[in-house]
Design a protein that fits this description.
The protein is an alpha/beta fold and 694 residues long. The chain is 39% helix and 20% strand. It contains 25 helices and 29 strands. Strands 24, 25, 26, 27, 28 and 29 form a six-stranded antiparallel beta sheet that branches. It has a five-stranded parallel beta sheet with strand order 2-1-5-6-7, sandwiched between helices. Strands 11-10-12-13-14 form a five-stranded parallel beta sheet, with helices on both faces. Helix 15 packs parallel to helix 16 and helix 20 packs across helix 21. The protein is flat.
């Protein structure tokens, strides 16, 4: 943690500018909270109208303090807030939390004031939190520089969870939900407009708190992706899971985010790719974060996804099997020895295969859980365990069920969760620290997330070797023409179709003889990137004479369009089993971003694509392809042979490496279609468009 962030999260002295005697006002709550929750440092209320605030000596101004405080809370509004920040900077305050709103989130004028205020603070060496923030809270040391009502509604308890959020409301919500599940929370920090300190900055600091075992983030934009990536790498090193909510998935959400915190939303598929690449798990809302938190804090890191379902209801076993398939948790194939061991412990009418139906015999023999669980505990096929108790009550020894389950979990260290909608049934399991949920959807959803996130955190991405920046053809036009684009790709290891650029009908006829027929004849002009819309592409050209005639026609059409006449391409007619597209661009936030998916003329309409961030390997591409809607086609359907996915993956890697080597030179690469054949037949790029960087 940097010294300046230390001054905010572990200050030795705090000034409250705009301090209030009333603990229910924004200016009164931080003082009340710090005194109540054990802050050991010095608190300096600043209120020129009072000699004392909440039992503490009050000061007329920052200048009147006996020392420059580590941290100052600016609770006054409008121009007074700006003046207070300037005074803090001049006094040598290390960090200032600006509660006041009406800055970047309010429009261009407010944004300009915010930027100027921040520049002055930075010039003085002071860090700024906010403005428009609910503040910071560290319950590990009582440094609560915030005003959230939630800290009154749900009493704090220090614990192993850190919450960092752009939104004060979402930080309070996450805190409340976690505390409602009985979990302790140490850090609850809101960054607001992020004029200076961002979620990434605070995430980096909180990740270095050795007592934090789970980090939850809420973001509306990703202002410092490099630092967040570094934080994620450090978190993986120390086995610290990060679960993020990134709002602004939709166009409407992106507009709302802009008005909320003055942020600019990042393109959502690129955000997903960024999180996956760095082992951060994305969920939809703070409810999902809180729901899974206890399972993460158990320290479970499953080796696989194979599930064992156990219930006292046959119907619940069937429903558990259905749900396991929905969540991608295959039922574990238990060994013959395990099945026999289970059968020996159950009545003859019970089911010893997975799912294991203990039946209503549990009512007369409360020890069945304790008998069955050890029998399956050591089966190497079992990674995850789900116990579903749809009904229990009088006559059932639920305390014994819970005790046996806790012993099982402690002995195996494997994840075990319970679904019990009756609170009287759920309570004994919760009391023993077993993650317990209201229904199987919640329970299996958490297990699936835990297994998937564990696998994601274990992934590594070998760095690509340094590459020389590509040499682009002379010219200042926005796009390379198609021939130039194909030649550039070929020079960087991408297989492209055999082609010739022709400047006359005679050359077109000769080219047809070289590439062979049938051929493709298409105009080549950087001014016309989408040629088919103008009738400038001819397929299945069967003779040299036809190629010459098409040259004349397309040459004339280019003149009619007023486009540069750079030539006409005669290319081999390459067939494949399926058309794919590969694209790449320089994202303003994440840098090079690569897209692969279903290709052809409907690519914009269908948008069946996956996004990757470099560096990545062919295996990463193949995993991404499995997420597409067309994934079933890859391995062949209705007797068709599989496609050459390996060859397609190598094309994607080559395009990605080219894009990554060209910052400031190439803005985008559009490769569509890539013709992919049957496995072993390879992949071939037949059309490409490269855009220069501005």
């Amino acid at each position: 943690m940097s010294d300046l962030l230390e001054s905010a999260l572990n200050p030795q002295s705090v000034a409250v500018i705009g301090a209030s005697e009333n603990i229910h006002k924004i200016g009164g709550r931080p003082i009340h909270y710090m005194q109540k929750h054990g802050f050991a440092g010095r608190i300096y209320p600043i209120n020129p109208g009072r000699d004392e605030v909440q039992g503490l000596k009050s000061y007329a101004s920052l200048a009147a303090l006996p020392e420059a405080p580590d941290l100052a809370l600016v609770i006054v509004g409008g121009d007074k807030a700006v003046a207070a920040v300037d005074e803090c900077a001049a006094r040598g305050v290390k960090s200032a939390v600006v509660i006041a709103s009406g800055f970047g989130e309010a429009g261009e004028e407010g944004r300009e004031v915010q930027q100027a205020m921040t520049a002055r603070a930075r010039a003085a060496g002071m860090r700024l939190y906010g403005p428009n923030t609910q503040g910071l809270a560290n319950f590990g040391n009582g440094a609560i520089a915030g005003f959230s009502t939630m800290f009154v509604e749900v009493p704090p308890a220090d614990g192993p969870i850190g919450v960092v959020s752009q939104s004060g409301g979402m930080s309070a919500m996450a805190y409340g939900l976690l505390r409602g599940r009985g979990l302790g929370v140490r850090h609850v920090h809101a960054t607001g407009n992020e004029a200076d300190v961002t979620v990434s900055d605070l995430a980096w600091a909180v990740a270095h708190d050795p007592d934090v075992k789970l980090l939850l983030l809420y973001l509306e934009n990703i202002a410092n992706p490099e630092l967040l990536a570094r934080t994620a790498a450090y978190a993986r090193e120390r086995d610290l899971p990060i679960i993020a909510v990134k709002a602004g998935r939709s166009e409407s959400g992106q507009k709302a985010a802009s008005s909320h915190t003055g942020s600019l939303a990042n393109e959502d598929r690129a955000v997903d790719a960024f999180f996956r690449h760095h082992g951060i798990w994305r969920v939809r809302d703070p409810h999902a974060q809180a729901l899974a938190a206890e399972a993460y804090l158990k320290g479970w890191r499953p080796e696989g996804r194979r599930l064992v379902v156990i219930s006292n209801s046959g119907a619940s076993c069937v429903m558990g099997a259905d749900a396991s398939e929905e969540f991608g948790l295959p039922l574990a194939a238990l060994s013959a020895q395990t099945r026999q061991g289970v059968a020996d412990r159950l009545p003859g009418f019970a089911t010893a295969t997975n799912p294991i139906d203990i039946t209503a015999a549990l009512l007369s023999n409360s020890g069945l859980f304790g008998d069955v669980l050890p029998a399956v505990a050591q089966d190497p096929a079992a990674d995850l365990f789900f116990i579903n108790i749809p009904v229990a009550g009088a006559g059932y020894d639920v305390e014994a069920f819970a005790a046996d389950t806790a012993k099982f979990e402690a002995a195996t260290g494997k994840p075990v969760v319970v679904a019990a909608w009756q609170e009287s049934v759920a309570a004994p399991f919760k009391a023993r620290g077993i993650p317990t949920f209201a229904n199987e959807t919640q329970a299996l959803g958490v297990l699936a997330q835990l297994a998937s996130h564990t696998a994601l955190m274990r992934q590594s991405h070998a760095p690509w070797p340094p590459a020389q920046p590509p040499s682009l053809p002379e010219g200042s036009g926005r796009f390379l023409n198609e021939a130039q684009s194909l030649d550039l790709l070929a020079a960087h290891g991408v297989p492209v179709v055999a082609h010739r650029l022709c400047r006359s009908a005679a050359e077109a006829r000769d080219a047809w003889g070289v590439v062979g027929g049938p051929a493709v004849v298409k105009a080549c002009s950087a001014d016309v990137p989408h040629k088919s819309e103008h009738g400038l592409v001819a397929l299945r050209v069967e003779s040299a004479e036809a190629a010459g005639a098409l040259f004349d026609a397309q040459w004339a059409k280019l003149a009619e369009l007023g486009a540069a006449r750079e030539g006409v391409i005669v290319a081999a007619m390459h067939k494949g089993r399926h058309e794919f597209m590969v694209g790449a661009r320089q994202d303003p936030v994440f840098g090079p971003v690569v897209v692969v998916g279903d290709g052809g003329k409907y690519v914009e309409a269908l948008q069946d694509v996956a996004v990757l961030l470099p560096p990545f390997a062919a295996a990463d591409v193949k995993a991404a392809l499995k997420t597409l809607r067309i994934a079933p086609l890859l391995e062949g359907v209705r007797g068709e042979p599989p496609l050459d996915v390996d060859a397609l993956a190598e094309v994607v890697v080559a395009v990605g490496r080219l894009m990554a080597s060209a910052p400031g030179r190439i803005a985008s690469i559009d490769v569509n279609p890539v013709m992919v054949g049957t496995r072993g037949e390879g992949a071939m790029v037949v059309d490409a468009l490269v855009e220069r960087a501005a």
